[in-house]
Inverse folding.
């Protein structure tokens, strides 16, 4: 029976640890030497699950603001001091943390 495995209680339900490897996963060295338990998480999952959707939403917002910038520049010219609607849209862009270089590039292209 010992060759099949050893039942270790108290580890979140029934768990079988091979008897030939010793209890290395629990910190006790066995015939295979000490084994380190893995953490069970990593940083990449946080980046993928949290930052990815947030960046996608920010990208959609910037695309919408860029469209508004182009439309306002077409209607009244690319100078915000002479075009109040463009000045308002530029103010919205800056309030939403759109990079200044992006705003200037959109106005140059319009």
């Amino acid at each position: 029976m010992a060759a099949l495995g050893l039942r270790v209680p108290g580890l979140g339900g029934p768990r079988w640890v091979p008897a030939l490897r010793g209890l290395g996963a629990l910190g006790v060295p066995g015939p295979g030497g000490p084994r380190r338990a893995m953490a069970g998480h990593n940083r990449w999952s946080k980046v993928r699950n949290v930052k990815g959707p947030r960046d996608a939403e920010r990208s959609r917002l910037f695309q919408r603001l860029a469209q508004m910038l182009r439309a306002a520049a077409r209607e009244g010219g690319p100078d915000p001091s002479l075009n109040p609607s463009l000045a308002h849209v530029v103010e919205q862009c800056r309030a939403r943390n759109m990079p200044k270089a992006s705003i200037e590039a959109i106005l140059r292209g319009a």
Observations:
- The chain has a mean pLDDT of 79.
- The first strand starts at residue 6 and ends at 7.
